[in-house]
Amino acid sequence: MARKPTETAAPAASANVSRDELLKYYRDMLLIRRFEEKAGQLYGMGLIGGFCHLYIGQEAVVVGLEATARDGDKRITSYRDHGHMLACGMEARGVMAELTGRIGGYSKGKGGSMHMFSREKHFYGGHGIVGAQVPLGAGLAFADKYKGNDNVTFTYFGDGASNQGQVYETYNMAELWALPVVFVIENNQYAMGTSMKRSTRSTTLYGRGEAFGIPGEQVDGMDVLAVKAAGEKAVAHCRAGNGPYILEMMTYRYRGHSMSDPAKYRTREEVQKMRDERDPIESVRNLLLTGKHASEDDLKSIDKEIKDIVNDSADFARESPEPPLDELWTDIYADDAPQKTAEDVNV
Amino acid sequence: MATEILMPALSPTMEEGTLAKWLVKEGDTVKSGDILAEIETDKATMEFEAVDEGTVGRLLVSEGTQGVKVNTPIAVLVADGESADAAPQGSAPQAAEPLAQPGQGEASKDETGEAPERAPAAAKSAVEQVSTPEPDESPDWPEGTTVRQMTVREALREAMAEEMERDETVFLMGEEVGEYQGAYKISQGLLDRFGPRRVVDTPISEMGFAGIGTGAAFGGLRPIVEFMTFNFAMQGMDHIINSAAKTLYMSGGQMGCPIVFRGPNGAAARVAAQHSQDYAAWYAAIPGLKVVQPYTAADAKGLLKTAIRDPNPVIFLENEILYGRSFDVPQMDDFTIPFGKARVARKGRDVTIISFGIGMAHALEAAEKLAGDGIDAEVLDLRTLRPIDYPAILKSVQKTNRVVTVEEGFPVGSIGNHLSAWIMENAFDWLDAPVINCTGKDVPMPYAANLERLALITADEVVEAVRKVTYR
């Protein structure tokens, strides 16, 4: 049922990929990279507080999977969520302003880096408790199945969350009830500072689904085309009513777990090697250049365009005011104000 | 254009640090991601990466400098081709003022230099509306309505069936709710009537199905999640508190969670410590939850229907011992009871006994005994613990000037503790005696029958407390 990744997946997939597609992946991944670098910078300046978990290095996972989603599909993830939001089309301004705790943020400044949502883009958070998003994601899929549509929910979690018991309670029920959920394990190999080797003897994470009858596979998560190809298969499986599917994305985060992580659990050389040899953005850049899909100048102008978006988001995030003080007391109960619960229910 | 590189904050609490080591020198070209320096924070030594690309024009702070304030310029980066001399020398425009996060320490003053005004005081708590001192004392159902004797069990079942009939998005999930017909037979017959799509048997996975239910509520359904008992809800507590109760707030109002978590709560009989606990005070402590603990069958029905329609997460605390007791229930097409409306179960003038749930049984029994001795007790059934009907409490205290609270839960951090504090703050001048809290004893529930009796609250203890506050 589960199988090993095919080494040749990427080149095979790249043969069929269009110029526009490659440019889109390049642009989307670069936006996340530059956005996160800027967030790191604003954190350093004290404009972003608390915890801030950067997605740098893992961009191909979310960009490749978003390429397989269609309107109505949902996504939910952990606290390392900025990339997921940008990839599903949420505005850089709203995300950055939430990081700075301003009224222009997606949660009016009340959620912060780890807690952002967009009903419009079907992004259901942004969850700060490791593993909690897994049953929540299955619940979103439960709602879609109940309503009788064929939407799919992408439920992202890490190798660290894979050791939470609720993941397996969820696997069991998701398969039992054939819920349309793609479980995406972003295996960046470190649960905060604890490497896979030091946390489990069962290091093939997708294989843990076999105990519940859930098919899955390991995917090169640094290769956006491989991610997309695997995602298409998983989504087709779920949409057809066959229940959940597990994708274990082998990926890597370049930065620390959060901003205050000195990263002494791995060597600088290990990080540098990944950056030099496996960078997901550089790979697509090379495909674009070697395939003569784009010139250096074309890419430079994309770089400029992205830089402008990110700088604009940072300006917005600095200028947007802090929430008015009466916001302290709003949004505690839905009946305080008109709210949209069940607006999209159509059973 | 020259860019200043500022001393970064590398942890949530860092205000200054030591520039331990430069890993670049003047004239080096750097690109985004290159490590510029090692910086010692209050927690650890961190590597500091470049964000922009360019050439290091000047290093402004030398290696080994201690106490470098966050946001002090430490180097200048120049664009390719630009001369390092173009870099400004040291003093930076925005560096003098530490850019601490607004709302912290010095920076907590707003732009006008005034200390920030306090948040509006009117809403001291989202559920405390003391501004309306007159309690709603309208009857729960119109006079002349036909009533029928019904058990609490039947009332709960009718409430769920009626709401499932009314709203297709309402469904029931939990352990043994379907084919087994309910561990306590609350859901008896619902599977036959509504089918397995809407009456969902779960495996024994409280954390998992508390989370799946919460996710389904985010997704637009109205789940009723039954815990076989609330003792097992502790396994799913993270989803009740962190996922269900807080998400509306954390999302700036975007993500409602209309869900009911219900099941028996509190001591049954002879099931010992792990299966005998009243969680009322735990849940009532959480902003974002609504908490209901009915005593009568009519309240069980009317409040459960309200709970299912409520757009917020509702904790509905039932009681196994009460399931089989019968009460009058009005025969109406659509009978609901609003949250936050207490019920005067017995009118009196000498003392107010405030209770809820099964505590009401002890309170009423005590009131009868006291009446025989000429003490006329008023008994107030709170029915909901979030929101609490403070106006009703205030009105009764102003009449009787004496209060005893009754509940089954542990004494420390009890609902009674909270009520005592509230009454002291808001009605101190009306009190003629200290408020006494009657609670369960401060021990895990014992198994032995005689010890169990000692651990539980009794009507006699309530009588004794009333004698103390009435000095009789």
UniProtKB/TrEMBL annotation, chain A:
Described purpose of this protein according to its UniProt entry: The pyruvate dehydrogenase complex catalyzes the overall conversion of pyruvate to acetyl-CoA and CO(2). It contains multiple copies of three enzymatic components: pyruvate dehydrogenase (E1), dihydrolipoamide acetyltransferase (E2) and lipoamide dehydrogenase (E3).
Entry keyword Nucleotide-binding: no
Keywords assigned by UniProt, alphabetized: Oxidoreductase, Pyruvate, Thiamine pyrophosphate
Catalytic activity, EC: 1.2.4.1
UniProt-recorded Gene Ontology molecular function terms: pyruvate dehydrogenase (acetyl-transferring) activity
Presence of keyword ATP-binding: no
Catalytic activity: N(6)-[(R)-lipoyl]-L-lysyl-[protein] + pyruvate + H(+) = N(6)-[(R)-S(8)-acetyldihydrolipoyl]-L-lysyl-[protein] + CO2
Domain called Dehydrogenase E1 component: residue spans: 28-324
Gene3D superfamilies named in the record: 3.40.50.970
Protein's name according to its UniProt entry: Pyruvate dehydrogenase E1 component subunit alpha
GO biological process, one term: pyruvate decarboxylation to acetyl-CoA
Essential cofactor(s): thiamine diphosphate
Assembly, per entry: Heterodimer of an alpha and a beta chain.
From TrEMBL, chain B:
Region (Disordered): 85-147
Cofactor list: (R)-lipoate; thiamine diphosphate
Gene Ontology biological process terms in this record: pyruvate decarboxylation to acetyl-CoA
Gene Ontology molecular functions: pyruvate dehydrogenase (acetyl-transferring) activity
Signal peptide: none
Biased composition (Basic and acidic residues): 107-117
SUPFAM superfamilies, per the entry: Single hybrid motif (SSF51230), Thiamin diphosphate-binding fold (THDP-binding) (SSF52518), TK C-terminal domain-like (SSF52922)
Catalytic activity line of the entry: N(6)-[(R)-lipoyl]-L-lysyl-[protein] + pyruvate + H(+) = N(6)-[(R)-S(8)-acetyldihydrolipoyl]-L-lysyl-[protein] + CO2
Keyword match Oxidoreductase: yes
Alphabetical list of PROSITE patterns matching this protein: BIOTINYL_LIPOYL, LIPOYL
Domain Lipoyl-binding: 2-78
Keyword presence, Oxidoreductase: yes
UniProt EC number: 1.2.4.1
Keyword list, A-Z: Lipoyl, Oxidoreductase, Pyruvate, Thiamine pyrophosphate
Superkingdom of the organism of origin: Bacteria
InterPro entries reported for this sequence: 2-oxoA_DH_lipoyl-BS (IPR003016), Biotin_lipoyl (IPR000089), PDHB_mito-type (IPR027110), Single_hybrid_motif (IPR011053), THDP-binding (IPR029061), Transketo_C/PFOR_II (IPR009014), Transketolase-like_Pyr-bd (IPR005475), Transketolase_C (IPR033248)
General function of this protein: The pyruvate dehydrogenase complex catalyzes the overall conversion of pyruvate to acetyl-CoA and CO2.
Oligomer and partners: Heterodimer of an alpha and a beta chain.
Record NCBIfam families: PRK09212.1, PRK11892.1
The protein, known as: Pyruvate dehydrogenase E1 component subunit beta
Organism for this UniProt entry: Paracoccus chinensis
